[in-house]
Here is the input.
Amino acid sequence: MKSLKGIRVLDLSRYIAGPFCGQVLGDLGADVVKIERVQGGEEGRRIGEMLKGESLFFMGANRNKRSLTLDFRDPDAQALLRRLIGEADIVIENFRPGTMEKMGCGYAELAAINPGLILVRVSGFGQEGPMASHPCFDGAAQAHSGLMTLTGPADGPPTMAGVFVADYSTALYGAIGALAALQARATTGRGQVVEATLMDSAMSMLTTAIAERQLLGREQTRLGNRDRYLAPSHCFRSRDDKWIYIVAGNDYHFIRFIEAMGRPELAEDPRFSSFVARNQHVPELEALIDDWGARTDAEEILATLHAAGVPCEPVAAIADVIDNPQVRHRRQIVEVDHPEGGEVPVPAPAMRLSDTPADVFRGPPALGAHTGEVLREWLGMADEEIDRLSAAGRI
Here is the structure.
């Protein structure tokens, strides 16, 4: 049994935020059909490292989907798209605002065809407003939301996060919104529009920065790897030149930490006797820990602190993550089928449900591989009509 068994999703989106939203729904068991251009498919198929002619970038956000190709500019193909939408529960799109309306697929038109339709609209800044027409990618959202100002070394430039956090969080908000809309539809019988934007999603991660600026007149700055509220919480280097992140900022963990470090007397030092005091003397505290780390190998630091119940872990390279016994125990790396044969390792679904588990049951689709199959299943279309549309270049 799959959580979203019987739910039909049309994914019209490209790149990361929209496709990853569709992938999350697919992991939960929805029938996700990816609609792509006839010539070349979505742009993500041509980005990044290639394996047997297929993009690893594309594979990262498009498993558990079927692919149907369609000429978006052709009026007959647009009519076919509206027929498919009439059979869908959820549609995901991340075109520039106004594009769906130009195709005759604004929500008012679609709701007239399918009153229960849930339209997930993914964009940079929203469908309306002074910035709605601005093109947007993850880095631009991180920059304009203020997130980039808070990221990076204290004495360095504003910095992007190491992965596309605005894209991925937008995908998750879109999926959460779609699930909430499904639940609401079960009561009202009506669908609705779900908006998820990169700007809003990035801003949702600003924690207290807005309140501090507006109420206290205080501008948050970059802190590198330091925790914004608790000390010590930072990366420290061991004698054998390995990095370990230690989080011992609250009073409970700090007492355990200094005892494990062999410095219990620091509890009586007024500079470190409370988390407020420690935050006011971070450089002095970190100097003491740096000295301890310089005299102690990483294995001993980790064993000592784990035994003491102090949160700490080594800073892992990707090769370390792949070999991590906890990752292997939870089977958090799975293999998906490559369209040209073989398998590709990818992260498993991050959601764990005890009765209706998320699953990887289909690899990323080859372009247009399921066009006829979907048209027969969803619309009951005859093979002769499918062949005619294909010969005309509309699918």
The chain has a mean pLDDT of 95. The radius of gyration is 25 Å. Residues 8-204+334-391 form a domain with the Rossmann fold fold (CATH 3.40.50.10540). The first strand starts at residue 8 and ends at 11.
